[in-house]
Design goal:
The structure is a single chain. Among the domains are: about 175-285, Butyryl-CoA Dehydrogenase, subunit A, domain 2; about 465-560. It contains 19 helices and 11 strands. The protein has helices at about 25-35, 35-55, 55-65, 90-100, 105-110, 115-125, 135-150, 160-165, 290-320, 335-365, 375-405, 415-425, 435-445, 450-460, 470-490, 495-520, 530-540, 550, 555-560; strands spanning about 70-75, 80-85, 175-180, 195-200, 200-210, 220-225, 235-240, 255-260, 270-280, 325, 330. The strands form 3 sheets. Strands 3, 4, 5, 6, 7, 8 and 9 form a 7-stranded mixed beta sheet that branches. Strands 1-2 form a two-stranded antiparallel sheet. The N and C termini lie far apart (about 85 Å).
Amino acid sequence: MKKHTPYSDFIQQIPQLGNEFEDDKFLNDYLETYLPANTLSEIKPDLKQFGGRVGKDFLVWARDAEVNEPTLTQFDAWGNRVDEIKVADGWKQLERVAAEDGLVAIGYERKQGEYSRMYQFVKLYMYTASSAIYTCPLAMTDGAARLIEIHGDEFLKGEPFEGLTSRDPGKFKTSGQWMTERTGGSDVSRSMTFAYPDGDNFELKGHKWFTSAITADMAFTLASTEQPENGKRAPLTVFYLPIRNEDGSLNGIEVEALKDKLGTKALPTAQLELTGAKARLVGEKGKGVKTISTLFNITRIYNTISATSYMRRAYSLPKVYSDMREAFGKKIGKHVLYEKSLKQLEITYQSNLMLALFLTRLLGKEECDSASETEQSLLRLLTPVAKLYTAKQAIASASECIEMFGGLGYLEDSGIPSILRDSQVLSIWEGTTNVLSLDMLRAAEKENGLNAFAVYSKEMMKQDYPASLKDYHAKVGAKLNTFLGFVSSVKSAEDMVAYSRDVAFYLAELTIALLWLDFLRLNPEKEKYAQTLNYWLTYKLNDASLKEAEVLGLVEKERIEHG
């Protein structure tokens, strides 16, 4: 006899995403504000069709890639070294659609001029959270293309560049970025990979401890052409190497292991030994760190966009669920505390997207030679700041999303925990929060970044604002003066190091406030966003946070440690 309980007939409906372009009202408002009307009308049909696939076939492929993790076979049955890596069919499909939809190509076709980057990154923003983080190889591919565009020779600007920027899945090539070693980690100056002359080119020998997307077609890496003397490290140089030889064998590369990671399970990440990899010098010898910064300035913007994608997903899933799930006599979305949590997640993703898309505007202008010197310096300053800030917000949003689903959110087969696990890497890839805080200081010093921020911000504040924004204008102006006054009051470089993390977070939140104010200036009728700015100014921009290092006693400690 069939058992029956009062709960036997209840199955919770699964939340389904709609069209992630049409449903994102803020994204549409933003594009209508900052894109020329003819450009928006040109790209909108593509964004609409792409947004419709995000919650459908993309998500199916991503799930397949996450469940069927990459595998490594090092030897065949006869003892021959093969180092064969297999990935899921879903991973291959995500690569195919990335090529066909121009997720790298759009940025280099530049059919929309300086707005091409914004168009490209809007698609990446929708794609990432449904891609099993295939945006990682895309980030390195895009960075490699930009590196070649600026520093590449005639050979690199031929077939390699054409492959990196192709829309044809049969011709599309991806690139890796191999810098992390056992000795140095973030300190790439401690690299122990060496380049030995081999005719007109070089052979690389060394060890790469953490290399993402080992299934790529090529890689750019750092190596020294000189042995260290008297304890001094030799300067580094950038090298291009094809992953495989023409016969399909690996190019002087041995895959020692695939990494077992907290997240990004679908992404094959390997530990490698370079045993004489044929490589080609890129850029000026001994200027490797400066040269390869072209690449990671792009990958950091990808990281920022990816973070906002996860923030959007952390909002959209519980938003759909709030209209489906009932508890304590009503839909959970009708409970005021759930509603508050949703509102906070919404403000978080919108504000961080505001910052991310501002970077794409600056990048597009720089690449089309229409950026002022101030804008170029501002891009250098804000790239590490936006990367570190958005990564932290993505992790917090993902954790909140899991909690909003209760026990179901904690189940792996719901697909929700992967949002948190994959978001966690964003604060580590391309520089940890502390490393990027120091990078911000370098941009402030070498690129005159803080002065550029002051000039740009003051110009924004001089614009004509409607009377309805008078109070907000005054509050943002006061926060701007507080920030500029604080950084100018720090007299020693040692003290600024101690304050750098606090300064970076405040700078990110202040920039977001300035961007909201500008957005409202251009959209005074959209009063709902004024509430967002009010929340931001009231609860995010806390002046006391600038002095956290001082309260913790770290400023004095820095003075002592640095003598």
